[in-house]
Specification:
The chain has 346 residues and is an alpha/beta fold. It folds into two domains: 185 residues, NAD(P)-binding Rossmann-like Domain (Rossmann fold); 142 residues, N-(1-d-carboxylethyl)-l-norvaline Dehydrogenase, domain 2. The protein is built from 16 helices and eight strands. It has an eight-stranded mixed beta sheet, sandwiched between helices. It is globular, with a radius of gyration of 20 Å. The N terminus is likely disordered.
Length: 346
């Protein structure tokens, strides 16, 4: 059970770690609810700019940020004595950032991961990384937040539905009520691995969907890609202990559909440019924000081999990104695989 006192429950002290578009949107949402929010941003020049302009013009331009949102480049100060710490950093820096902040967290702080990815070397989801770096955060004080939620639309108040998962119902409900607004509906779930896998693997499938669009293959192909992509996510989830029902919810199917079809998706954009013939290194050199699916493709490929799970679309994305398989050839290989029953799990 939580040990946060009644005053902290009514007006929790919050720290948000991460200054990208999603971190900005969540920090803004919490500040607009009236919570005093300290917000860690890696780039000192961006901190100064936000203090002066009240806008993150690099990662979320056009959104005016409230005065109760306090940006800082001092990580220890941002997380010190906070009742709730929301971590929204790229997956490849999760280990270093959480390791640096671990000693500055309160023993009874709730930690929420809103990052989507799977670590390349360990093949851990973000909850697994955090368990290793912040050893004193138990399952009753950790939650993962995910779902179909483009940052700019959340910041504009577009109706959005997400899921917060925790092994502890009390923790999940506390986070649910802290984040919920009339335009940001939050459901609870106890399936952390399912919520995290849905949020991570969908980025790989979204790269494939972008390639489909870049190749000009049409809506039939995209629909097939999304459908079979969900099958792959569910296969991996079941192998890793996830509840299959989670993967047809907002953190699974919902996020998959959004990221595979929305023009605001960075992963879809990466795939579309590759489908049009641009090399991966050139695509990434033109991007300031992180497309998580590029790194996660490595992890998912390795997980599929480790868990002996058939994931032909995800494996094809890996081969296109890292082994120079031509996207059109990948489509041919996928379409000419051995015929089988649609409900075959293998």
């Amino acid at each position: 059970m939580m040990t946060m006192d009644s005053q902290a429950n009514s007006n929790p002290r919050i720290g948000v770690v991460g200054g990208g578009s999603w971190g900005t949107a969540l920090a803004n949402l919490l500040a607009l609810k009236g919570y005093p929010v300290q917000w860690w941003i890696y780039e000192s020049d961006l901190v100064r700019h936000i203090r002066e302009k009240r806008e993150n013009s690099v990662f979320l331009p056009g959104v005016q940020l409230p005065d109760v949102l306090h940006p800082s480049d001092d990580l220890s100060a941002v997380v010190h004595q906070k009742d709730l710490v929301v971590i929204v950093v790229p997956s490849h820096v999760m280990r270093s950032v959480t390791g640096e902040m671990a000693d500055h967290l309160k023993m009874d702080a709730i930690v929420v991961s809103a990052s989507k990815g799977i670590e390349n070397d360990t093949l851990l989801t973000m909850s697994g990384v955090i368990r290793e770096t912040i050893g004193h955060i138990g399952p009753d004080r950790f939650a993962a937040l995910s779902g179909p939620s483009f940052a700019v639309e959340v910041a504009r108040g577009v109706p959005t539905v997400v899921t917060v998962a925790s092994e502890d119902l009390d923790c999940a409900q506390k986070v649910q009520h802290i984040f919920a607004t009339p335009s940001f509906r939050v459901y609870t779930n106890d399936d952390i691995i399912g919520v995290e896998l849905g949020g991570a693997v969908k980025n790989v499938i979204a790269i494939a969907a972008g390639m489909v669009d870049g190749l000009g293959l049409g809506l039939n192909t995209r629909a097939a890609l999304i459908t079979r992509g969900l099958v792959e996510i569910t296969r991996l989830g079941k192998a890793m202990g996830a509840n299959p029902h989670t993967l047809v919810g907002s953190a699974g199917l919902g996020d998959l559909v959004l990221t595979c079809t929305g023009d605001l998706s960075r992963n879809h954009t990466v795939g579309k440019k590759i489908g049009q013939g641009t090399k991966l290194k050139d695509v990434l050199s033109d991007m300031r924000m992180v497309a998580e699916g590029v790194k996660t493709a490595r992890s998912v490929y390795s997980l599929s081999l480790r868990m002996n799970v058939e994931m032909p679309i995800s494996q094809a994305v890996y081969r296109i990104l890292y082994e120079d398989l031509a996207p059109r050839e990948a489509v041919h290989l996928l379409m000419t695989r051995d015929l089988k029953n649609e409900l075959d799990d293998n």
